[in-house]
Amino acid sequence: MMGKPRNAISPTREENYPEWYQQVVKSADLAENTPVRGCMVIKPWGYGVWENIRDALDEMFKSTGHKNAYFPLFIPKSFLQREAEHVDGFAKECAVVTHSRLEADENGILQPAGELEEPLIVRPTSETIIGELFARWVQSYRDLPLLINQWANVVRWEMRPRLFLRTAEFLWQEGHTVHASAEEAIEETRLMLHTYATFAEDWLAMPVLRGEKTEAERFPGAESTLCIEAMMQDRKALQAGTSHFLGQNFSKACGIKFQGIEGKEEFGWTTSWGVSTRLIGGMIMTHSDDTGLVLPPKLAPKQIVIVPIWRKEKEREDVLSFAQNVFSQLKRSFRVTLDDREGLKPGAKYFEWEKKGVPLRMEIGPRDVQKGSVFCAKRTGGKKFGLAVDEQFITHTQVILNSIQEELLERATQMRDEKTYTISSYTELKENVEKGGFFIAPWKQNNDNERAIKEDCKATIRCYPIDMQDNYEGKTCFYSGEPADCIALFAKSY
């Protein structure tokens, strides 16, 4: 039986997965809790990851015609009440502003003053306030499609916070669009789902299943909700992104109308879609190990760390000069840092950068200088190897980083596929759900049965996987025994 790895996170994943996760976040210096319960500060290393996520997604959004804007943080309570399902879905999570200022009482204690005529909701999501403004902007079919995205923070009063996964305030992007027809809006909903899935797999190296949520799990006020679902190393599901076809529900509530090509006034068809800093939590739980954080090269704040090594003072100048030359070559093409701090042993530096998840470490000692090479260690493991600093140095370095990115996706995909099971009876689900995994089953859609399963064994329908819906015909529901009308993915989730 293998023991703990050198410099292991304590506890390990097997010993206590939730606490392991918290310790990975702490040891990598990604984020920490604040005096405000449920809120976190994202520290520079963690924010560097978010910046890379944001920049990559932003480019993908703009390439499909979307433009960025910014909308108010505060939403009048009456706006939220316009769409009945929407207000019901978010009422319990809302933070409410009722006063405009503070005044000191006779004891010098600050008290709320200046009660507002109408309370303001701190943005939990922006459909209603954006709908109000879209109603001003959309007058004719010529104004459509209207494709808007915003990068913002939102507040949802979370009772059981966990860094990145669930916090009262978090960062995200939310896309909002208006279209002239249902078909165009549905196509937009699908496009953004596939955009998220592509990003998850190509950048996060996190394999996902694309699917549709059940009626009970839809976004409040939506006609349909599409999602991507990923499996974490503890074999629980994580919803990593959603895309909603809102039909005309918010258009009618907010008055988004336009004059059609034939002169008739029509209500617009709208969508919304979003991902958040939860993606960082998913990335951590997908790839990290008992040594600490593991980062995909595409998203790492620093892809390479160079560690110069010398024992004798006379070696110092040559090693540092060569290391600086290597750094100068690499920084033109990669995010790289040169760790030439004095007073720290090389082992301490290795330990620090391993915990921070830097994909590739290059060590340079006197012998490496003589050879004109660097000694490389991949964060994903394997034997160290030499790499010549020659005319192919940059190309070979890129190949190595690409191989790390691909290796992470392959590992995660293999784990997910090995822990995905096709079942035909409820007994199979109930007996195995505690072990974790994805359970694929023929299903007859029924809200009461869905609720009963959730209450009985804590498994939920994560989605109806899009690529599996040709497989239910002729099968019976694994729970009710009735003819199935879809294939459902069950799992315990975050």
Describe the structure.
The chain is an alpha+beta fold. The protein has 14 helices and 23 strands.
Which helices and strands, and how do they pair?
Blueprint: H1 17-27, E1 31-33, E2 40-42, H2 44-63, E3 67-68, E4 74-76, H3 77-80, H4 84-90, E5 95-104, E6 110-122, H5 127-137, E7 146-155, E8 169-179, H6 182-202, E9 209-212, E10 224-231, E11 237-247, H7 249-254, E12 257-259, E13 265-267, E14 269-276, H8 278-287, E15 304-308, H9 313-330, E16 336-338, H10 346-355, E17 360-364, H11 366-371, E18 373-378, E19 385-388, H12 393-418, E20 420-422, H13 426-432, E21 438-443, H14 447-457, E22 460-465, E23 486-491
Parallel strand pairs: 3-7, 15-16, 15-17, 20-21
Antiparallel strand pairs: 1-2, 4-6, 5-6, 7-8, 8-14, 9-10, 9-22, 10-11, 11-14, 12-13, 17-18, 18-19, 21-23, 22-23
Helix pairs in contact: 2-6
